[in-house]
Design a protein that fits this description.
disordered N terminus
């Protein structure tokens, strides 16, 4: 199985999730929601947390349109969270990828994601581990959007469904990938939502 670079674009390492298939995306039984995490209900779903943020990936050597071995690092932060007052950090991950190119950025992938939460007045806000799949849903004239969907397998919000949409400027993807120096750093904006069925 090949582990695609699109996991880095989403702010995480897909190689850490190789061998974890879609059948693993099932909620953990017995998950509970504290009153502080209860949000607004809409269309049969309870919104637990909604955040905006940024994701960043780096590639060494820089990605190009021609395949080459690279070491990639990825991370990000969530802020401006509604309904809960939380913020979070995507745990940074670094690892090698064989024969990677900019073309891999448009491939679907799946893997794992770990977040460390921060909450005012809470000395132990906890962590969350998410199993996800990522699919490119739009390559427009200005930007490319990638949607990750998955389930929180353990930690805070266990059993919740995650939807994360990352947006990247096409001029950065296209121009840098085609340039002699390549794509060394990729920054994007992200929206992050956790929900649970009522």
């Amino acid at each position: 199985m090949r582990c695609h670079v699109s996991g880095f674009v989403a702010g995480l390492l897909v190689i850490a999730g190789c061998g974890v298939g879609p059948e693993a995306l099932e909620p953990e039984p017995g998950a509970s929601t504290s009153p502080a995490e209860v949000g607004a209900a809409e269309q049969g779903l309870l919104t637990l947390v909604t955040c905006g943020g940024t994701v960043i990936s780096t590639f060494d050597p820089p990605l190009k349109n021609e395949p080459q071995d690279v070491v990639a690092s990825a991370g990000g932060v969530l802020s401006n969270c509604l309904l809960s007052g939380l913020t979070a950090t995507f745990v940074p991950r670094t690892g090698p990828i064989k024969a990677a190119s900019c073309l891999d950025l448009l491939h679907s992938s799946y893997g794992t994601l770990r977040l460390i939460w921060s909450e005012p007045g809470n000395p132990a806000p906890g962590e969350s581990e998410v199993l996800f799949s990522a699919t490119v849903i739009g390559v427009g004239d200005v930007a490319t959007t990638i949607t990750d969907t998955g389930t929180v397998r353990s930690g805070r919000f266990a059993g919740a469904t995650m939807v994360r949409v990352s947006t990247y400027a096409n001029d950065l993807l296209g121009n840098k990938c085609a340039s002699p120096e390549g794509l060394a750093t990729l920054n994007g904006s992200v929206t992050f939502v956790l929900t649970r069925l009522l």
